What does this fold into?
Amino acid sequence: MEALITLNITDLNGVKHKVETPVDMGLNLMEAIRLHEIPIKALCGGMALCASCHVILDSHHQLPEMSESEEAMLDDAFLLDIPNSRLSCQLKLTPDLDGLEVRLGESTGN
Amino acid sequence: MIETDILIIGAGPCGLFTVFEAGLLKLHCHLIDSLPQPGGQLSEIYPKKPIYDIPGFPIVMAGDLVKNLMQQAEPFKPGFTLGERAEKIEKMDDGRWKLTTNKGTEHAAPIIAIAAGLGCFEPRKPEILHLLNFEDKGVDYIIKDPEKYRNMNVVISGGGDSALDWAIFLADVAKSVTLVHRRMHFRGHLDSVHKVNDLAAIGKIKLVLNAEVTELNGADKLESLEITDFKDEHKSIQEVDYFIPLFGLSPKLGPLKHWNLNLHKESIAVDPKDYSTNMPGIYAIGDINDYPGKLRLILCGFHEATLMVQSAYKHINPDKNLVLKYTTVSGVTAF
It folds into this structure.
């Protein structure tokens, strides 16, 4: 098992960040984004109750299915219709996400 | 005017525990919260979820923790202003702070403790043409008094539990209930979904699925709305007295953004020595504050509340010495 995976994060200014992140610390994607000091609002801190960690998947990785609460939150926040939308706080980092490409959604800013 | 020693903004776990710690120092507290019940997120968002990191409780349900904190605070008779949002503060001539809520309720205290967590929970607003023009003129985001809708034509929008529950409830109250949902299926409790479908079958609820309210119209108040069908873009106009969009609540820092407090992103910057802000007599504790090494944990909020009231005591009584007393030795003397 690789201890590090590479993530490609595009921030709200369109800047691409290529960052290496450990997978053995139980981090979710939102926490990894924060760890690398890429601005993300993520107000509620990972409880799927604010949608301010919304990301759009740009690569072809197979992500785990959404939980009901993630889907409900994206739907309530009018983001579910944007294709490939996810809440980054609900995506646990695993080795098979190596090379993941995501864009931060508008709601992650102020 | 409500007068107290410490005015606490936010009745979540941190605010409630402040009442206890302040009570041990014989300071009175009054809590203000925008939600209609105490407990903050724990009551509103996850009452049935377990918490594992409260010292001494291997597991406790969030709702039970709130119940216990209320019981712990009870001897010190806290006051509550619930369902109102702390809107504005001003310094009074006697040096105390005056705080006014969005409903106009006035409070005065030498100390304000901001324990507002993520901020106040405000209804999420869909993007609908003219929506903002009709707020309180036919558009309600929260149902406070269902009687208001008796014999009225009501349109509800949303697909979650609150939309379903209110559609069911109002089916017996309103003249007509229309439930508009952007998808073909609801994601609420199965029970509620069945009930809504049953009521639709006997004509007590009109279901409009895979469609969205797109425009509101009226002269002085809401009179009609436009519903667009997603499948064929067909637009229909429907007469209506009330439109109730129910898309959940979203936390916002809210009015305290404009109180001249030093902010760091969405948090209030504090001195980690006593959690004081840049404004004398105003403290910030719990999830809403920020300082080097900050952890957003309930247990850290309890610690912050405890240190904060010591500093607040000295602020109120600069000439008095404070001796730490252990509850095991001196017990709890109720007010």
In short: Chain A touches chain B at residues 41, 43-45, 47, 49-51, 68, 71-73, 75-78, 81, 110 (CB under 8 Å). The beta strands of chain A are 4-10, 16-22, 54-57, 85-87, 100-104. Residues 2 and 95 of chain A are 7 Å apart (CA to CA).
